[in-house]
TrEMBL record:
Name the record gives this protein: Response regulator SirA
Residue intervals passing through the bilayer: none
Gene3D superfamilies membership: TusA-like domain (3.30.110.40)
Family: Belongs to the sulfur carrier protein TusA family.
Domain named UPF0033: residues: 9-76
Source organism (scientific name): Rhizobium tubonense
Pfam families per the UniProt record, alphabetical: TusA (PF01206)
Parts forming coiled coils: none
Length: 77
């Protein structure tokens, strides 16, 4: 099982399309199977991030509402 305690990629405060674009770029630097935890505050990220995962064959392990927005845990596919 992949480690879920990796550093948090904090994208809070950024507006669409920056959270999904930065997430895509960050995922490209990871090895297959590594996880990325992303924090966002943009309401559109709840649509964009899952869509990115489906399109690029990444596994969305968790999508959770937080006090400041949303947290996504993604396993690179």
């Amino acid at each position: 099982m992949a480690r879920l305690d990796a550093e948090v990629f904090d994208l809070r405060g950024l507006k669409c399309p920056l959270p999904v674009l930065k997430t895509k770029k960050r995922l490209a630097s990871l090895q297959k199977g590594e996880t990325l935890t992303v924090e966002t505050s943009d309401p559109l990220a709840v649509i964009d991030i899952p869509h990115l995962c489906r399109e690029d064959q990444h596994e969305l392990l968790e999508s959770a509402k937080t006090e400041t927005g949303h947290r996504f845990i993604i396993r690179k596919g």
